[in-house]
Amino acid sequence: MGSGSSRSASLRKVCADHCGGVNWLSLSPDGRYLLTGSEDWTARLWSTSEQQCCMLFQGHENYITSCHLENDAAYTCSADHSVRRWDLMTGGCTAVFKGHSSIVNRVLVTQGCLFSASYDRTARCWSVETGRQLQEFRGHRNCVLALAHCSSQDLLPEPDREQVRDFLITGSTDCTLKLWVVSDGRCYRTLRGHSGAILCLALDTANKALFSGSTDCTVRRWDLTKGEQTKVFREHQGSIICLELVSQHLYSGSADRTVKCWLLDSGKCVRTYKSHKRTVSAIRYHRGILFTGSGDACARAFDTKSGVLRRVFRGHTFIINCIQIHNQLLYTVSHDGTLRVWDVRSVLEQDKETPKKDSQKGSLTRLCNNKVGCMWGSQPQRTERSSQAERELREQEGIELV
């Protein structure tokens, strides 16, 4: 089945510059750089051509939860309640976005705005240029864990072309999703149906639909024009950790140790990808191959059509929190503190009939760079200091997170 270890055959490089677990990995739109955010309170910029660290970003006063990389700037959010913008040339911090009163767990940058989600039960909008807070989205009764952005052209049945508005979509541990009008911070619509925390989102703007994954073990499809739930995907036996939308298929990674492939139209599960020994924490589709990261410290490559396991990438010692694919290289980051680079050419070349055109262009992989920010990957283990901070927060707010 081609599922042998690639410790020696495919491992290109191990980058161990961080001295704490790596929680997030972001790829720049032009593919030149990677950005990692770590438990060691720092972020690092990596060259994809040389696979070396070329910049260190220091300044946060607690661990970094997530990050976002553009071609000209890096953004990091932290348990120190702030978001920071960094210059890629100098490594200097060019803006600090302050206002949240608790851990900031997600950041999303699009159309000159920075959106942030926090355990303080709010999402916020900031001007990327000035660093000024433009809007606060308050209304959730618990943590905001997932963000998505769309316009009225994506959302409304017949939008007024002269009054195109931006909308922010938030998913929360209070089991609801909310749609907000960005310009005035007003809650436009609340979507109810889940019975567990919402961890991840996937936008299907072509069909004006939204998919949400939850700790209630379901994926749900929503009609954004009507605000109605149109389908419930029920076959998982564990929390839905991550989603990937590709053409007419939706892939969902779960704590039940599987990934499932669903037909968007019917909601039918057409394939299940097994062999993971722990939670599936990250998924990426690339040229007919589904790459996964897991709590069992392994990454895997599956043929999406046959479901055959092509390769197991072994070497990490803790959960893989995030993965990226670029130029036939697989990048994985883990709570073991390393970034690992794997050569996946042999995996991609096994199927000669697979089109060479990168199918990610129309997939959620690209959307995630500018429209969606979710709880992709189960909560990694924390350092003693950060673990204590989260325990205190949960006791104060009565929160139970996956």
From TrEMBL:
Region (Disordered): 378-402
InterPro entries to which the protein is assigned, alphabetical: WD40/YVTN_repeat-like_dom_sf (IPR015943), WD40_PAC1 (IPR020472), WD40_repeat_CS (IPR019775), WD40_repeat_dom_sf (IPR036322), WD40_rpt (IPR001680), WDR86-like (IPR044715)
WD repeat locations: 15-56, 57-96, 97-136, 191-232, 233-272, 313-346
Keywords: Repeat, WD repeat
Composition skew (Basic and acidic residues), residue ranges: 382-402
Pfam families given in the database record: WD40
CDD domains for the chain: WD40
Gene3D superfamilies reported in the protein's UniProt record: YVTN repeat-like/Quinoprotein amine dehydrogenase (2.130.10.10)
Annotated PROSITE patterns: WD_REPEATS_1, WD_REPEATS_2, WD_REPEATS_REGION
Source taxon at top rank: Eukaryota
PANTHER family found in the cross-reference section: PTHR44489, WD REPEAT DOMAIN 86
Protein name per its UniProtKB record: WDR86 protein
Taxonomy of the source species: Eukaryota, Metazoa, Chordata, Craniata, Vertebrata
